[in-house]
Amino acid sequence: MSIRPFRDIKRKKTKKIKVGKVEIGGDAKISVQSMTNTLTTDITSTIKQINQLDEVGADIVRVSCPDRESSLALKKIKQSTKIPIVADIHFHYKRAIEAATSGADCLRINPGNIGSKERIQEVLKAAKDYNCSIRIGVNSGSLEKKILEKYKEPCPEALVESALENIKILEDNNFFNFKISVKSSDIFLAVKAYRGLSNVCDYPLHLGITEAGSLIPGSVKSSLGIGMLLMEGIGDTIRVSLSDDPLKEVKVGYEILKSLNLRHRGVNIISCPSCARQGFPVIETVKILEKELAHIKDPITLSIIGCVVNGPGEASQTEIGLTGGGKDNHMLYLSGLPHRKLVSKDIVSEVVKLVEERTKKPKKTIKFNDTH
Fold it and tell me: What is the pLDDT of residues 337-355, one digit of tens each?
């Protein structure tokens, strides 16, 4: 059962590039990214985390390469992972060359920070030779000195000017396989910068609110900033930055896309906040269902509503619906139609069974670690 959105978002058509096997821009789906928080030199732990991110739906994963050992470690990491890898490089051009030769699918750099024209050319040659794309990563916290002196402080115009200067460096060297980000921890600054950049270039844009914070504030800030831009048709790939388990970044990223009908993966649960009218413990039931259905990858929408006020209406718009009734007498709906009555103790097992039947996916549990 497919629910037609009330309004379709018309995305801006940007140039299409590839990060490994993943297309970015043009008519490609909006991809979801994350970044490892392990030591890259701890190859075993890094491989494990990348594969966990792959399993929960990440399309691309970024790995920090602060030293030679880290950039060279990418070769072994790539041998045990399937997902495209972005090497995060800041100032040292040799790290970028090492990462490209070690198999990185993309380099996150600011060409203007790499150094001389000759060094930039060496990096771009390595990127071309090894079919490695580039992300120009402009950040309000690390703007070039001359731009800061001109504008006195980080502002949208400063971020856009930095991006355009870095774009020119690549274009002057006949390199066009790149995407761009203009991130800030300030939502207003980031949104205005992305809008300004979108108005003056057609390269694919990587969206993010950098250093957004812990799970709840970071999710709210990212949803507001990224969501506003996506609603305007701006953005080709996203990364939610959280001081938390990277797996949760991917989960929040998909929730943003699902909320805007831009991309669907896994179970979407529509549920009420619960009140004195509830016929079963809604909050506890939803928490259990989220855990039990975390392995589902195919998109499917459920409504779990505690009473008959909104329950039947929500159930008419979802594949599987549950409406709470009195005296432990609840109604289960399939494709909007009443199916059969359920008692509270059977809700979880029956809903999980129906979801698995409709998605035909065997269960594989993914644990979200809250202790990072």
Answer: 999 999 999 999 999 999 9
Which helix (H) or strand (E) segment holds residue 136: the answer is strand 133-139
CA dist 119 to 93, 97, 108, Å?
6, 10, 16
> Both 215 and 102 in a single domain?
yes
Looking at the fold, whether 154 and 184 belong to one and the same domain comes out as yes
Residues 169 and 289 in one domain: no
Contact 243, 35 (CB under 8 A): no
Question: CB neighbours of 2 closer than 8 A, spacing ≥ 6?
Answer: none
Question: How many residues can be counted in the chain?
Answer: 372
Across the chain, what does the average pLDDT equal? 93
Q: Give the per-residue pLDDT at 361.
A: 54
Sheet of 337-342: strand order equals 267-271, 300-305, 320-323, 330-334, 337-342
Separation of alpha carbons 100 and 130, rounded Å:
6
Give the residue carrying structure tokens 């388990």.
Answer: 245
- Whether 139 and 184 have beta carbons less than 8 Å apart is answered as yes
With a cut of 80, say whether residue 362 has pLDDT above it: no
